[in-house]
Amino acid sequence: MNDRPFHHGNLRAVLLDQAERTLREGGIEALSLRELARRAGVSHGAPRSHFVDRQALLDALAERGFNRLADALEAVIASDAKGYEQRFRAVATAYVRFAVTDAALLDLMFTAKNGDAPEGLRVASERLFATFGDLIRRGTEAGEIAPQDPYRLTLLFAATMQGIAVLVGTRRISAQGGDRLIHDAISLLVHGRQDRRQNE
Description:
Layout: H1 11-26, H2 33-40, H3 54-77, H4 84-101, H5 103-111, H6 119-141, H7 150-169, H8 175-191
Helix pairs in contact: 1-2, 3-4, 3-5, 3-6, 4-5, 4-7, 4-8, 6-7, 7-8
């Protein structure tokens, strides 16, 4: 007889917390509604009151990831960093830190379907890219960045930071090496040249 409770507290948040932990430890293949129920200490049918199937769980995880990353970057942008380049570099560092710590979650976020994604996931994804775009537009308007296509620059920024995160996460370079690459990348994006002082 299964004497586990059907639910407890905020089950949806509990399940998503467990799912993130499972994703971090075992990758996407380790995720299942039944296993999450076991970990959360509830009946195996309880998760279906929040996620109709495994895909719904994955979509919710991706949405949560986009919002969490956007929250972190918006907090950096709103911080008291002295100059635009410092703020841009701090945003890049926060992005890479997230990508290294939650590499499987970031992969899930960027492989989520765009066209027929649930509205919450689509809005969360757009919010993250709007955060990048806003930062780049501010730099362009302030004359910190040469005028160019903000969408392409946003994609270039995201691709570059993800590439650095992969190098750090797979230990091809050290965390300190990643910091140096972030510095160089932002110098190139902002000034169109590398800051030689970091390499002397």
